[in-house]
Specification:
Layout: E1 6-9, H1 14-19, E2 27-30, E3 36-37, H2 42-67, E4 82-88, E5 96-101, H3 102-112
Parallel strand pairs: 1-2
Antiparallel strand pairs: 2-3, 4-5
Amino acid sequence: MAECRVAFVTRALLEKIEGASLPALERVILIEDFQEIDLQRVPELLRQIKEKVETLRQRAEQFLAEHGRPRSPKTAPRPDDLAAIVYTSGTTGYSKGVMLTQGNIVSDVLAALRYVDLIPTEKINRHLYN
């Protein structure tokens, strides 16, 4: 059991603080803006984060309904297809382009689902990437 008195955490990992056994914990600081979080407010903050995610999901659904095109099996992305190139300054001082595949992105989405409640009518096509 950790005996830390102060924890620095991102909003994405705030939920871990709520369920952790940290009896000596006195303060939680968000890394994004160094805001101190009142430990009594953690459940409310998690609810707010989930609401924001739900709003973004609804906006994405609306966008796809208005602009999306159905994909045929021939044009659907495969797990190893390039999805994005993220540029970073690099740890050695040389910038680098990190190539992310469709599978990388789907993996991140599936990991995020641990923090987002889905309703029964929503579907996830996990079988496409196994």
